[in-house]
Amino acid sequence: MKILVIGSTGQVARALAAQAGKHDVVRAGRPQIDLANPTGLADLIGQASPDAIINAAAYTAVDKAESEIETARALNETGPAALARTAEALGAPLIHISTDYVFNGLGGAPYAEEDPTAPLNVYGQTKADGEQAVLAAHPGALVVRTSWVYAPAGQNFVRTMLRLGSERDQLNVVADQIGRPTEAHALADALLVLAEHLRGGAPGGLLHVTNRGEGSWRDLAEAAVRGAGLETPIHGIATSDYPTPARRPGDTRLDLSKAERDYGIVLPDWRESLERCLEMMGVGGRGA
Ligand SMILES: NC(=O)c1ccc[n+]([C@@H]2O[C@H](COP(=O)([O-])OP(=O)(O)OC[C@H]3O[C@@H](n4cnc5c(N)ncnc54)[C@H](OP(=O)(O)O)[C@@H]3O)[C@@H](O)[C@H]2O)c1
Question: 3-state DSSP helix/strand/coil percent for the chain, to nearest 5?
């Protein structure tokens, strides 16, 4: 299958290219395509003539979004809506990626796809609006919500913890937010399978796809730092002790049963995918 990925250097875009296998994955990032000013989409899709499109581009700077609302909205809502309209007009199946941050984290149990969204921050609000806009423009599109994404390269929590763990005497990490950390290559494998299903006529809608298991940011930091052989003490702190411009939800575990039931998709436990990530970074296998 030929799969056109919107986004080039992002964590998920790169992982999709790395995991392509039998598929021909073509990435289109800036300056070729600017989702904030999405002219030329019809030409891009028409020329590429893909069997499916995966939109891995987004405004992902959660704190910065609080002060860059218009840019976040352009990249997370209006740009994806334009992409969805064009894909629909050209008959191209579309997977759009969304986030656990569409929820407020107060549910007390894993969120199902149909649970009402209630974002706490601008990023989450623009992503929630983007989901609706994409599905309105392209009812056959699949909107895949994932969470806490990291990869061997790019800006992410795991890489930050490894850097700080080697620079500082101790780390203080938020321990009262829980979710399902997800490694980009594991997610990419699932997205490629989903693209095949979509091409084969599977229905669109919302779908939750993350690594299995759950943990706090502190758990993720601990597993990453120990896995890299560092002994830096890691103390758990409360969200209230780490003020950020954007409010964060407390418990955004996503219910994964639909992906398993309808598509047979079961990603590894997050600790297993984290180990693989550390190996790809050349720092793995050093844990106790
Ligand atoms: N990161 C997380 O923790 C997380 C959690 C849940 C859901 N998600 C979702 O997962 C998806 C992928 O995220 P990620 O972590 O791979 O993101 P990322 O590493 O921050 O990469 C962002 C991507 O967006 C592209 N982009 C930014 N501005 C653009 C513009 N004006 N026009 C076109 N493309 C633009 C970048 O393009 P270039 O390639 O051109 O630089 C890059 O490929 C997003 O939908 C995100 O909301 C992420």
Answer: 40, 15, 40
59 is catalytic: no
pLDDT band at 285 (very low <50, low <70, confident <90, very high): confident
Any alpha helices (H) in the chain, and if so which ranges?
11-18, 41-48, 69-73, 79-89, 122-137, 157-167, 184-199, 217-227, 257-263, 270-281
Closest CA to 194 of 283, 122, 275, 262: 262
d(CA 145, CA 182): 11
Among protein residues, the one whose CA lies closest to atom 26 of ligand 1: 57
Catalytic residue of the set 59, 101, 111, 123: 123
**pLDDT band (50, 70, 90) for residue 186:** very high
Domains of the chain plus CATH, in order, are 2-155+181-212+253-268 (3.40.50.720)
* Total-model pTM: 0.97
Which of 5, 11, 254 to mutate to test ligand 1, by most ligand atoms within 8 A of the CB atom? 11
Residues with CB under 6 Å of ligand 1 are 7-13, 29-30, 33-36, 56-58, 60, 75, 97, 99, 127, 146-149, 154
Report the pLDDT value the prediction gives residue 284, as an integer from 0 to 100. Answer: 82
